[in-house]
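Section 3.1: Structural characterization of target chains.
Under the original work plan, the team committed to producing a structural model for every single-chain target entering the pipeline before any wet-lab resources were allocated. The record below documents one such target. The sequence was received from the expression subgroup and is listed exactly as submitted; it comprises 463 residues.
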Amino acid sequence: MTETKIYLVKTEKNIHLAKASWGFRLFMLYVRLFYKYLYFRKIHLLHLENVPSDAPLMIVSNHQNGACDVLSILLFIRRADKTRKIRSVTRGDVMVHPVGNVIMRWLGIVPAYRIAFEGEASLGKNAPMLEMLEEEILNDGTIILFPEANHQTIRWFGWFSPRYLLVMLEAARKSNFEKEMYLLPSCNHYNAYAGIHDDTLIKFGTPIALSAWYEKYQKQPKATVREINGLVKRQISDLMLNITDLDNYAAIDFLRKTYGVNFARRNSLNPAYLPDKLQADKDLFARLEALKAVDAEKVQKIYDDALQWKEKTQQLGIFDWNVDERPAWKVIWQGMAGLILCPVFILSLIINVLIFGIPKFIHSKIDDINTHCTINIPSAVLVSIPLTFITLFVLSWLLTDSFLAGMLCIASWPLLSIFLCFYYRAGERWVSRVRFLSMSQKTKTECLLLRQRIYHALDRILF
């Protein structure tokens, strides 16, 4: 990337730049440690070198999973000026509560008001926010924005408002179109939406230097906005898994999770490595779409069978891969290992009851699984973890009369949290194996034949 000359824009009014105090940096380090090592198992950062380090920047991303989308970018991008907070924009209605409003503004989050969420009367509140964002850009700041406005509940690229460009282009106008500034398309992707200790992926596209459109924007503003927005949308759509066949979404999503594992391996991709799995899923959907254009009836039959198989696995409480079951003696050995480790599981469950219990109680009242991380992370960081640490330390110290024992108990908590997640999931897999092995031979045969029909049909048309 060529070196960019930066112009410092001076103004007589207060800029209100978002400064990162030492307290803020320590808090973000605490959040980063929890997010990276406990909440997620693995975070994949792809093309981080594409992030401009010292120029005005707006990161524009798809919106798949509530607060995690913001944090995944915010916690891991690198900027030259580390004393500045990175601004992000959220829906105005989530900042209604006074306490939440103060906390979110301290974190650098500003509200945007829209007719669909806050009503037409609230739109007048956007003017100060837009001016603040323009000032951040003019002074080499960074903004994270999600033009879909609301997170999607499926792996699909929704309606994409071009209004984010008005912030950048109005800032360019205030600099007399002399200051270079960048748009950076980005993609968030998850192997699961609602789970804890899963994998996530942040993939950055190619930076777009807005100066190439300055002259055209001054003559044809609307056409220029459409052109730039189209370029950003194409990049994000290419980065992410965008299942556009919404009528068959449930079947396609099920097939990528099941048959998609074999499809990845046959294309020399590792289904356990999220970047490879994302590529395999994109390739699988593209192939299915191409085949549907040639023989829609044949592909639709596969989708119908996939939904039938999905419903059957849910009714029986098994997974697709249980059909390829291990010998019964291995299931017995796994059960014995689980029984031996059960006391450790109970201990880890007791120690982590606050961290998992509070979010679970709130989740029971909310149907949208994509909001779970928005509940999990703040409740853990602000409430559950501090309370757990204090409780563990005090009880250990009182019971043993040893300060060192209290510290060791706190130090063991992260390991026990990770163990709890592994044990719980291993238990789910073991129970599904036992269920399948205990079924009648007739039911097993029905499952095998239905699954084989789907897999063989896909093999014939894809390979």
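DSSP finds 18 helices and eight strands in the chain.
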